[in-house]
Specification:
The complex is a heterodimer of chains A (301) and B (438). Chain A is α/β, with parallel strands linked by helices and 301 residues long. Chain A is built from 9 helices and 14 strands. Chain A is elongated. Chain B is α/β, with parallel strands linked by helices and 438 residues long. Classes of the chains: A alpha/beta (301), B alpha/beta (438).
Chain lengths: 301, 438
C-alpha cells in the first residue's frame, strides 16, 4: 500500500467532511476516487496533500506516517487550475519544480524532455497569458508530474481538454502508471473510470460506501442478468428466468434482457431458451460504473 | 527554509522585471532633481532685461541709486503726461514716478505699466526708494551710515540638548524637524505602498487559483513569509535606487550649473548683492552649515539603524495584516471593505506624527512611539530630537512582540482564507478562522 488512510475524521465549523474514512491505495494502481459533489473527496485530497490536517485518524505513506518530507513525493493537479498569468511558461515550471525539491539543473533537463515529448518547445518563453486554455492545462500537467512523484493526485484531469489532447493525456497517465507511479484519480466521468482505473473508492456523505478492485466491485453488483440475441418468439412464462426487456433488430433477430431466478445455473436457463428460440448470442451483463454510482448514491439517500 | 528562499526570489525577480518598477525607480529621482534644478535653470536662462523709466520729481536720486541685476533703470526729467503716453511704445515695461513729497508721504511712489506690475519689479523699486529715503532721513537726524550699519544685528539662538549623562550637544531644532518629518513621511508611504503590494500579490495567487498547487508544496506561512520578505526587498532596492540616482543626478546637474552660477555671481558687482553676501557672512546659519550641524548633532549610525529596524518590523507587521486581508477576498475591489482596518492605524500614526513633530516629549508622542501600530512612524519622528535609551529599547521590544502577534493572527486567517471561495466574508467570520484547527 502506498497510501493507507485509517479512520480519518475532518470536521469544519458547519459540517462533517470526513466521518471515519478508511481507504487503502495499492502501489502502482490507478485508483478512482468517486463521489457526488460535496461528498468529501476534496477534503480527503487536501489531507493527503497536507494542505489541511485531519482531526483524528492517521494517514500512512508507504508505511510511514505522512509528514512534511512526503510533500516532494506527491504531485497534485487540483480541479481548479491556475498558473501565474504574467510569468513565462518555462520560468514558471522551473519555479514549481524547484518548490517540489528539484535542483535547478535537474528541473531544467526534465522539463526539456517534457517540452520535446509534448512538442511544445516554442512555449518556453511565452507568458502564460498568451496560451489557450488547453495549452495552460498541458503546462499545468507538466508542473504536476515533472518531479516524478511516487503518488500522483489528479482531480478531474480531463476537464478542459479537447478529445485529441484528452487521448494524449490518457496515454501519458497510463505510461506514468507503467513506470510504477500510483495515481489517485478523482472524477465524475464514469467512462474514464472504467477505462483507466484498477480500483476505486466511492465516497458519499463523508463516508466510504464502496471500495475495492474494479472487477471485484463490478462482480459485486452483477444482478444475474444476461443479454440474449435470438430468432423466434419468446412468449409467456418461463421457469428459470424473467424477461426484463426486449428490443427488435434487423434480420428478425431480437435482443432480450433476462434475469435468472435464484439458484438457477446458466446452463439451465440456456437449455430452456434453446427449446423456444434459436440463440445467436448469450452474454452476461456487467454493470457499468455509471449504474453502480447511481445505484449506490441514490440508495443512500 | 530553502523553499522560502525560492519564494522570496520569485517575488523579487518578477517584480523587479516589471517595467513599472523601473519607471517608478527612475522617474522619482528625475522629479526630485527637476524640482530644484528647473528654478535654477530658469533663473540662469532669464537674461531678458526689463527697462524702466524713472521720473524723479523729488530730485533726490542719482543714476547710481537705481541699479538692479535684472532691471535697467533710466532717470528722466520732464512732463509726466507725455511720458505716460510714450513709455510703452518705446519698449519700457514701466514708468516710475517719485513725487516731490516722498519724504513726508511713503506712498508717493507710482508705478505705471501696461500689464500688471510683477512682484520682483515692484519690490526692487520699493527697496531702492526706501533705502534712499532712509539714509536721507538718517542724515537729517544726524545718524551716520556707519552707525546704522553697525546696529543691524541678527540674533539667532543656539539650541543645546543636555543628555542624561550631562553631555551637551549643539542641536538644530529646525534641521531635526526636517529630518524627522522626512523619515516619518517615507515610512508612512512605504508602509501603505508595499503593504498593498503584498495584499494584491496574495489576491492574484488566490484568484488565479495557483494557490492550491503552491501550498501542496510549501506551508501557507512559508508562502506568506516569502512573499512579504520578497516584496520588502523590492522596497529596499527601490530605496537604494532612489538614493543613488538622486545623489548622482544632483551631482551631475550641479556640476553642469556650477561654472555658470559662479560666473553669474562674479558678474554681479551690485552693491545690494554684496551687502547681501556680507549679511549672510554675518549671520551664523547658512543653509550648508545648517545641514552639517544637523548631521553633526544627530547620531547617524543610530538613526540609520533605527530607520532600518522600524521600516523592517513596521513593514512586516502591516504587510502580514495586508496578506491576511488579501487571503480572505477574491478581488481588489472586494478587499476595500477590509483594508480600512489596516489603513486607519497607519493614517492615525501619520496624524499623530504631526503632534509628535511639534512636541516630541509630550505624553501623546511618547505613547504613540510605544504602541506597536503607531511606533514605527512616531519613533522615527522623535528620534532626531533625542530619545531616552530605555524608551527606545522598550518601543523596539513592543514592536517585535506586536509583529509576532499580528503575524500569528494573520497566518491563521491566511491559511483558511486562501482556500475559501465564493463566500462573502465578514469580520466575524475572519475572527472565527483564527481559532480553526490545523
Amino acid at each position: 500500500m502506498i497510501l493507507s488512510i485509517q479512520d480519518v475524521v475532518k470536521t469544519y465549523a458547519e459540517h462533517i467532511a470526513l466521518d471515519h474514512v478508511s481507504v487503502d491505495v495499492p502501489k502502482g494502481h490507478i485508483f478512482g476516487l468517486l463521489g457526488p459533489n460535496g461528498a468529501g473527496k476534496t477534503s480527503l485530497i487536501r489531507i493527503i496533500t497536507q494542505i489541511t490536517a485531519p482531526d483524528s485518524g492517521r494517514v500512512l505513506f508507504d508505511g510511514a506516517p505522512l509528514s512534511e518530507r512526503h510533500v516532494n513525493d506527491i504531485g497534485y493537479l487540483p480541479e481548479e487550475r491556475g498558473l501565474y498569468k504574467k510569468m513565462k511558461v518555462g520560468e514558471q515550471l522551473m519555479y514549481l519544480a524547484q518548490l517540489k525539491g528539484m535542483s535547478r539543473a535537474e528541473a531544467q533537463s526534465k522539463l526539456k524532455d517534457w517540452f520535446i515529448r509534448l512538442d511544445i518547445k516554442d512555449w518556453w518563453n511565452k507568458p502564460v497569458d498568451d496560451l489557450s486554455k488547453g495549452m495552460q492545462q498541458k503546462t499545468q500537467f507538466i508542473a504536476t508530474v515533472v518531479h516524478e512523484p511516487a503518488l500522483l493526485i489528479l482531480d478531474e484531469p480531463f476537464s478542459g481538454f479537447d478529445p485529441i489532447n484528452a487521448n494524449m493525456l490518457k496515454d501519458e497517465i497510463l505510461a506514468i502508471r507503467d513506470r510504477g507511479t500510483t495515481i489517485l484519480f478523482s472524477t465524475h466521468r464514469m467512462e474514464s473510470v472504467e477505462e483507466l482505473c484498477d480500483g476505486i473508492a466511492l465516497i458519499n456523505h463523508a463516508n466510504v460506501v464502496l471500495t475495492g478492485e474494479k472487477k471485484e466491485v463490478q462482480n459485486r453488483f452483477k444482478k444475474n442478468e444476461f443479454e440474449v440475441s435470438f430468432v423466434g418468439e419468446l412468449l409467456g412464462e418461463t421457469s428459470s428466468f424473467d424477461l426484463l426487456g426486449m428490443e427488435s433488430s434487423q434480420d428478425n433477430r431480437r435482443k432480450a434482457r433476462i434475469k435468472l431466478h435464484e439458484k438457477v445455473r446458466i446452463n439451465e436457463a440456456l437449455g430452456e431458451l434453446i427449446q423456444h428460440v434459436d440463440v445467436y448470442a448469450f452474454q452476461e451483463i456487467i454493470p457499468s460504473f455509471n449504474d453502480i454510482f447511481i445505484e449506490v448514491v441514490s440508495q443512500k439517500k | 527554509m530553502n523553499k522560502i528562499l525560492l519564494i522570496i526570489q520569485r517575488e523579487y525577480v518578477t517584480r523587479v522585471q516589471k517595467k513599472s518598477f523601473w519607471i517608478a525607480s527612475l522617474l522619482a529621482p528625475f522629479l526630485i532633481t527637476a524640482i530644484y534644478a528647473i528654478p535654477i535653470w530658469l533663473a540662469l536662462r532669464d537674461k531678458e532685461v526689463k527697462r524702466v523709466e524713472v521720473l524723479d520729481q523729488s530730485a533726490m536720486f542719482e543714476a547710481k541709486d537705481f541699479t538692479d541685476r535684472e532691471i535697467q533703470y533710466q532717470l528722466i526729467t520732464g512732463d509726466l503726461e507725455t511720458y505716460k503716453k510714450t513709455f510703452a511704445k518705446q519698449g519700457f515695461s514701466a514708468l516710475v514716478v517719485v513725487k516731490k513729497n516722498i519724504l513726508e508721504d511713503p506712498r508717493a511712489v507710482q508705478i505705471f505699466s501696461e500689464k500688471n506690475v510683477s512682484l520682483p519689479l515692484k519690490s526692487s523699486i520699493e527697496g531702492i526708494v526706501q533705502n534712499k529715503i532712509r539714509s536721507v532721513l538718517m542724515q537729517k537726524a544726524g545718524i551716520s551710515e556707519k552707525v546704522y550699519a553697525d546696529t543691524q544685528v541678527d540674533i539667532s539662538g543656539e539650541t543645546i540638548t543636555v543628555s542624561e549623562q550631562g553631555k551637551e550637544t549643539s542641536s538644530s531644532s529646525g534641521g531635526a524637524m526636517i529630518l524627522a518629518g522626512v523619515m516619518g513621511f517615507i515610512l508612512y508611504l512605504t508602509l501603505l505602498l508595499y503593504g498593498s503590494q503584498v495584499m494584491n500579490g496574495v489576491i492574484e495567487e488566490k484568484s488565479s487559483r495557483i494557490i492550491e498547487v503552491i501550498i501542496s508544496s510549501v506551508k501557507p506561512y512559508q508562502l506568506m513569509l516569502g512573499k512579504i520578505l520578497g516584496v520588502g526587498l523590492v522596497g529596499l532596492t527601490q530605496f537604494l535606487l532612489w538614493i543613488v540616482l538622486t545623489i548622482g543626478l544632483s551631482r551631475v546637474t550641479s556640476a553642469l550649473y556650477q561654472p555658470e552660477v559662479k560666473k553669474e555671481v562674479r558678474s554681479i558687482k551690485d552693491k545690494k548683492v554684496q551687502e547681501a553676501v556680507k549679511e549672510v557672512d554675518k549671520s551664523d546659519i547658512s543653509p550648508m552649515e545648517e545641514v552639517s550641524k544637523v548631521l553633526a548633532s544627530t547620531n547617524i549610525p543610530l538613526v540609520i539603524g533605527c530607520f532600518m529596524f522600524y521600516f523592517f518590523f513596521g513593514y512586516l507587521l502591516y504587510s502580514s495584516l495586508f496578506a491576511a486581508i488579501g487571503s480572505a477576498v477574491e478581488s481588489s475591489t472586494e478587499a476595500q471593505q477590509f483594508t480600512f482596518i489596516v489603513m486607519i492605524p497607519i493614517i492615525i500614526s501619520f496624524l499623530m506624527a504631526q503632534y509628535t513633530l511639534q512636541d516630541p516629549d509630550s505624553s501623546v508622542a511618547i505613547w504613540a512611539s510605544m504602541i506597536p501600530f503607531t511606533s514605527p512612524i512616531n519613533m522615527m519622528v522623535r528620534l532626531p530630537y533625542g530619545v531616552p535609551t530605555g524608551e527606545l529599547i522598550g518601543s523596539m521590544i513592543l514592536l517585535v512582540l506586536g509583529f509576532l502577534a499580528c503575524s500569528w493572527v494573520s497566518a491563521r486567517i491566511y491559511r483558511v482564507g486562501i482556500l475559501m471561495y465564493g463566500k462573502k466574508v465578514s469580520f466575524k467570520e475572519l475572527s472565527k478562522w483564527i481559532f480553526y484547527k490545523g
